[in-house]
Amino acid sequence: MLSLHDTQIAFGAAIHGEDAGALGELIGDDGISPERRIQIYRNNYRLNTLTALQATYPVVERLGGAEWFAQSAAKYQDSRPSQSGDLQYFSAAYPGFLRQDLENTEFGYFADVAALEWAYECVLTAADGSPVDLTVLHQVAPEDYENLVFVPQPALGLVASPFPIFAIWHAHQPDGANDTALRLDAGGSRVLVIRRPDHVELREITAANFALLRQFQRGVALGAAVEAAAVEVAAADGVESFDLTTSLRELLGLGAIMRITSGAAPSIL
Predict the structure, then answer these.
(1) CB neighbourhood size of 229 (10 A)
(2) Interatomic CA distance for residues 207 and 237, integer angstroms
(3) 242-252 as b/e, with b when 16 or more CB fall inside 10 Å?
(4) Which of 48, 64, 136, 221 has its CA 20 to 30 A from that of 107?
(5) Which among 256, 261, 248 is positioned nearest to 131, based on CA atoms?
(6) Measured distance CA(147)–CA(256) in Å, rounded
(7) What confidence tens digit (pLDDT) does each residue in 211-264 have?
(8) Predicted TM-score of the model (pTM)
(9) Which residues make Cβ contacts (< 8 Å) with residue 155, sequence separation at least 6?
(10) Are strands 189-195 and 200-204 parallel, antiparallel or unpaired?
(11) Alpha helix (H) residue ranges in the chain
């Protein structure tokens, strides 16, 4: 007789397509064979996980087509079995799976589109934030500004791609133009994903704002964040510097910052 632990392990393996022979003695017949009973559970698992992926990655499905997406989902299911009872987390590794599976193909950009859709999902379910209190700025001496820590909203994501994923995402919404003439060499995207009171907003932002906000997400204090962002922008766009005042004003205007603290934070570069 199998222990409960071993039974659970055997059942999980059977659901994922492995030999269900070890469960035979535990499954009653009652007119339905043990193999058929396992197959019912296996089919339900396949369908439920496919549905979860479809809900999270509708644009990827529209790009590849329903048949391709179902095949891709099955391959993903086999290589990355769910480790949680919450199917939302099952979808988390799909962008990485696509990046590996479609590497060196003309469809490699699917992975970046999937990363954008996963960011949307994470922002949709993230904790609530609060409006930033700017009065702290009046309490800090100018020479201490470099130690200010700008804490982004929790319901905020950043996705960068060498492909025009922002335009692709918009074109393949249910009410979008679905423009198959979109050129993959039209330029890259730096996308901010942020939750508003009644919707999730996606918008392209400048290289400077993206780089600075990404440093803030890492907990880097202002002085070190500006230095790192300037290096990143220069490497990507050939621009040696950017206007910090403009970037901070725009990020605050977008509601991207939840809190500003005056305590020094370690640089995480």
Answers:
(1) 25
(2) 8
(3) bebeebbebbe
(4) 48
(5) 256
(6) 19
(7) 999 999 999 999 999 999 999 888 876 665 678 999 999 999 999 999 999 864
(8) 0.83
(9) 123, 124, 126, 127, 128, 129, 194, 195
(10) antiparallel
(11) 4-15, 34-56, 58-64, 66-79, 87-90, 94-101, 110-125, 165-171, 207-217, 222-237, 244-253
Q: Cβ contacts of residue 239 below 8 Å, gap of 6+?
A: 207, 208, 233
Q: Alpha-carbon distance 164 to 71, whole Å?
A: 25
Tell me the C-alpha distance between 251 and 228, whole Å.
17
Which tens digit of pLDDT belongs to each residue from 177-225? 665 567 888 899 999 999 999 999 999 999 999 999 999 999 999 999 9
196: tokens are 């508003």
Could you tell me the residue ranges of all domains in the chain? 1-108, 126-269
Return the structure tokens found at 76.
């993903």
**Burial letters 37-74, b for 16+ CB under 10 A, else e:** bbeeeeeebbeebbebbbebbebbbbbbeeeebbebbe
Looking only at the bridges linking them, the beta strands covering 149-152 and 200-204 are unpaired
Token pair belonging to 121: 């999902």
Distance from CA of residue 151 to its chain's centroid?
Answer: 20
For 266, the token pair is 């370690």
